[in-house]
C-alpha cells in the first residue's frame, strides 16, 4: 500500500509539473506578444516623428526662401554707409576742381590787368567785388554738391547698369553676328565643297558616258565589221580530170587512220602527193556495177565545169575494178552540221547570214552554168576552218546539167 501511495505522489507531481509548464508557455507567449506590440508601436512613433521632422525642415527651408528679400534689404541698409563715404569723396573732388578753376580764372584776369595800364583802380575794384561773388558762388556750389550727390549717384548707377546692359547686348549681338558669320561661312564652304563634289561627279559621269559611248561605238563597229571576202581558193589551178586506170599508191600516200568523213558512198581519208608533198583528200567510192560507175563519172564531169571559191575543186581521179578514188582539195574545218550541233559553239544570226550568203553565191554560180546540186544539206557543206565562217559546197554526185528551166529537184528534207 505504501508503494502504491508513493507511486501516486509521483504521478501527482508529474501532472503538476506538466500543468505548470503549460501555464508557463502560455504566459511567455502573452508577454512576448505584448513586447512585440510595444516595439511595433515605438517603431511607428519613430516613423511619425521622422515624418514630422522632415515636414518641419521643409517648412523651415520654404520660410528661409521667403525671407531672402528681407535679407537683401538688410544688405542694402548695410551698404548705405559705404555709399555715404563715396558721396563725400565725390563732393571733395568737386570742391577741389572748383578751387582749381577759380585760381586759373584769377591768373588770367591778372594778366589782362597788366596789359591795360590806364585802369588799375577799376581792375582792382572789380577784382575785389568779384572775390565775394566767387566765394558765395563756391559756397552755393558746395551746398549744391552736397545736396545733389544722391541723384548723381543714382544716375551713375543707372548709367553703369545701362552700360553693362549695352555691353551685354553688344557682346551678345557680336556673338550672334560671329555665329551667323560662322554659319554663313560654313554654308558657303559646304556649298563650295558640294559644288566641287558635284562638278567631280559630273566629270566622272561625263567620262563614264564618253567611255560608254566609245565602247558602244567600238562594239557597234565590231558588230558591223563583216568579213565579206571569199574563202581561200584551192592550192592548185583548175583542171580537167579524167579517171586513170593506174593504182593510186604510186602517186599518193593515203592515211587510212585519218578519216575525214563518210557516208553511203564510202569514206574520205587524208592523203599526201608523193611528188610535191601537197595535202589533199581522197574520196574512195565503192562502184562495182556499171551504173554506180556512171554516177561517179557524172560527178567528175560536173566538177570539171565548176571553178568557184565556194565550190570544192577536183585534183585527180583513179578508177579500179571495184572502186573509184577522187582526189580533191583538202579542207580541215569539218562539216557544217557538226559545227551547228556542237554545244560549245555559239551560232549567232550573223554567222547564219554569212553561211547562207556564201551558199547562195556558190549556187548562183552553179545555176549560171546550168547545173543543179540536188543534194544540198549541212552535211554536204564543209568549213574551211573552225576560226572562220568560210565554207565550201561538196558532193556533186546527184548533180545534173540542164538545158532549160524545169521543175525543182532535190531532197525533200532540205527543200
From TrEMBL:
Keywords: ATP-binding, Kinase, Nucleotide-binding, Serine/threonine-protein kinase, Transferase. It holds the Pfam family Pkinase. It comes from the Eukaryota. PROSITE patterns: PROTEIN_KINASE_ATP, PROTEIN_KINASE_DOM, PROTEIN_KINASE_ST. ATP binds at residue 283. Residues 254-415 form the Protein kinase domain. Belongs to the protein kinase superfamily. PANTHER family: SERINE/THREONINE-PROTEIN KINASE (PTHR24347). This is Myosin light chain kinase family member 4. It comes from Oryzias melastigma.
Amino acid at each position: 500500500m505504501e508503494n502504491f501511495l508513493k507511486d501516486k505522489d509521483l504521478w501527482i507531481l508529474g501532472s503538476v509539473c506538466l500543468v505548470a509548464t503549460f501555464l508557463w508557455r502560455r504566459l511567455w507567449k502573452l508577454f512576448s506578444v505584448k513586447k512585440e506590440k510595444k516595439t511595433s508601436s515605438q517603431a511607428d512613433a519613430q516613423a511619425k516623428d521622422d515624418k514630422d521632422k522632415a515636414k518641419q525642415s521643409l517648412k523651415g527651408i520654404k520660410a528661409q526662401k521667403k525671407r531672402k528679400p528681407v535679407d537683401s534689404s538688410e544688405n542694402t541698409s548695410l551698404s548705405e554707409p559705404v555709399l555715404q563715404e563715396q558721396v563725400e569723396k565725390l563732393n571733395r573732388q568737386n570742391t577741389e576742381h572748383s578751387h582749381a578753376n577759380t585760381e586759373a580764372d584769377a591768373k588770367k584776369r591778372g594778366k589782362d590787368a597788366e596789359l591795360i595800364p590806364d585802369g588799375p583802380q577799376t581792375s582792382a575794384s572789380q577784382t575785389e567785388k568779384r572775390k565775394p561773388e566767387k566765394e558765395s558762388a563756391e559756397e552755393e556750389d558746395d551746398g549744391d554738391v552736397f545736396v545733389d550727390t544722391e541723384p548723381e549717384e543714382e544716375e551713375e548707377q543707372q548709367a553703369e547698369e545701362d552700360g553693362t546692359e549695352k555691353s551685354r547686348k553688344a557682346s551678345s549681338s557680336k556673338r550672334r553676328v560671329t555665329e551667323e558669320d560662322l554659319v554663313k561661312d560654313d554654308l558657303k564652304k559646304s556649298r563650295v565643297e558640294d559644288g566641287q563634289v558635284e562638278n567631280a561627279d559630273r566629270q566622272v559621269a561625263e567620262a563614264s558616258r564618253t567611255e560608254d559611248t566609245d565602247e558602244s561605238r567600238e562594239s557597234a563597229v565590231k558588230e558591223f565589221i563583216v568579213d565579206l571576202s571569199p574563202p581561200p581558193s584551192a592550192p592548185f589551178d583548175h583542171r580537167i580530170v579524167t579517171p586513170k586506170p593506174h593504182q593510186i599508191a604510186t602517186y599518193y600516200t593515203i592515211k587510212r587512220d585519218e578519216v575525214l568523213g563518210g557516208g553511203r558512198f564510202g569514206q574520205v581519208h587524208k592523203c599526201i602527193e608523193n611528188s610535191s608533198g601537197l595535202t589533199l583528200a581522197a574520196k574512195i567510192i565503192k562502184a562495182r556495177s556499171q551504173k554506180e560507175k556512171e554516177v561517179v563519172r557524172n560527178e567528175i564531169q560536173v566538177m570539171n565545169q565548176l571553178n568557184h571559191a565556194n565550190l570544192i575543186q577536183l585534183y585527180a581521179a583513179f578508177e579500179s575494178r571495184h572502186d573509184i578514188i577522187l582526189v580533191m582539195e583538202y579542207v580541215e574545218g569539218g562539216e557544217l552540221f557538226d559545227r551547228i550541233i556542237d554545244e560549245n559553239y555559239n551560232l549567232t544570226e550573223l554567222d547564219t547570214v554569212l553561211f547562207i550568203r556564201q551558199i547562195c553565191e556558190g549556187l548562183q554560180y552553179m545555176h549560171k552554168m546550168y547545173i543543179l546540186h540536188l543534194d544540198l544539206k549541212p552535211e554536204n557543206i564543209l568549213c574551211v576552218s573552225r576560226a572562220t565562217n568560210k565554207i565550201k559546197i561538196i558532193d556533186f554526185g546527184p548533180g545534173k546539167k540542164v538545158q532549160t528551166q524545169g521543175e525543182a529537184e532535190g531532197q525533200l528534207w532540205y527543200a
